[in-house]
Amino acid sequence: MGANRPRPGQRPAPGDRNSNGKEQHVINERIRAREVRLVGDNVEPGIYPIDKARRIAEELELDLVEITAQADPPVCRIIDYQKFLYQQKKRQKEQKAKAAKVVVKEIRFGPQTDDHDYNFKLKHAIGFLKEGSKVKAYVFFRGRSILFKEQGEVLLLRFANDLEDYGRLESMPVLEGKRMTIMMAPLKAGAKKPAPKQDNAKQKATKVEQKPETPAEEAESN
């Protein structure tokens, strides 16, 4: 049979145990139920005495594998167990590759960054997003510059808007200690720009920029 059926007392076939040393599946002679429910395309679904189910598996040169032990009777399939384990490991490997660690690039601003420095850092951010990295942009407030936190927020929202063709804003600016931060994630190929969130960012930036003067500021200007 596909998994070299073990005899009673024989050690499990290679690959039949997980990393904790426990059996992944109960197969062939290790299935102790008196009857099982067979499912699958290669058998007539139904409840069979265990001996008949094993005999069907032998005739097909495959393995009887218990897939739902908690059912009454247990549910089994007749498959090539070694092939099943190989495909399972292949899927796990592919999933692990897809879940590779995301690279995060940091870009630092001051609350009064000039246009030349801003454009230089914007160009770098575009490159980072194109290569698939996330961009963590932050404004660092040194000493009394924390008084300009609204100016820093406007700068970060402007930065997010200028990057909307390459990345999406994951959160609005957050102030933690002396840093105000945003995170940009790269747009997937063919993905549409997240208009609602970006529009909100634009509205907030405009609102901050058009903040009305205080009575004291108004009197001073007059």
Attribute tags:
single chain; 222 residues; alpha+beta; 5-stranded mixed sheet; 6 helices; rod-shaped
Provide a short characterization of the protein structure:
The protein has helices at residues 50-59, 81-98, 115-130, 149-162, 195-209, 215-221, and strands spanning 26-27, 35-39, 46-49, 63-68, 75-79, 104-109, 134-140, 167-169, 174-176, 179-186. By secondary structure, the protein is of the alpha+beta class. Helix 4 (149-162) packs antiparallel against helix 5 (195-209).
Catalogue the unreliable spans.
4-15, 195-222
How is the biggest beta sheet arranged?
5 strands, mixed
- How large is the share of residues in beta strands? 15-25%
Number of strands: 10
Query: What percent of the residues sit in helical stretches (DSSP H or I)?
Result: 25-40%
Oligomer: single chain
Query: Residue-averaged pLDDT, rounded?
Result: 80
Which word captures the global form?
rod-shaped
The end-to-end span amounts to 95 Å
Structural class: alpha+beta
Strands across the major sheet, in which order? Answer: 1-4-5-2-3
Q: What would you report as the Rg, rounded to the nearest angstrom? A: 31 Å
**Number of helices, where a helix is a run of at least 4 consecutive DSSP H or I residues:** 6
